Amino acid sequence: MKYLKAWLVTAVGYFVIDLVARMFILGPLAQSELSGVIRGMSDINKTPLMLEYVFIPTVLVYLLLQTPALKSTKSYAFKFGSVLGLGIFGMYEIINSALLLKWSSAGVSVVNALGGAIVLGLTTVVSVWALKKFNSR
Fold first, then answer.
1. What is the pLDDT of residues 17-26, one digit of tens each?
2. Closest residue by Cα to residue 105 from 52, 26, 9
3. According to the 3-state scheme, what is the secondary structure of 29-91?
4. At what angle do helices 46-66 and 2-21 cross, to 10 degrees?
5. Which 3 state secondary structure label does DSSP give 103?
6. pTM for the model
């Protein structure tokens, strides 16, 4: 039950941090640069998006339970999550550029990959806090 609570806090934290990033930074940039390639916010296929908010927190909590990140500082947790985020979101951007015909904006790819690194870095700090809080009981 303690891991489920930590997962729930991680999932909510990821959702909120990602939502803020998508609404104020990544979304407007993507809309302006890639309007012919991506769907508008009202046309998003919500099922895959919801699955992202299940998979990312699940993988993150699992990895944190396997690493010394739980015994570390917030700075280390942020770095751990940022590297993981850069890998996940960077690979996503590389695949987009390989598969989508109209994907030509390398600048958007870099911003999205770095944005993903920051979002997952912050989420990891939240997740480590939750795992420590619920693990100590």
1. 988 887 777 6
2. 26
3. HHHHHCCCCCCCHHHCCHHHHHHHHHHHHHHHHHHHHHCHHHHCCHHHHHHHHHHHHHHHHHH
4. 130
5. coil
6. 0.78
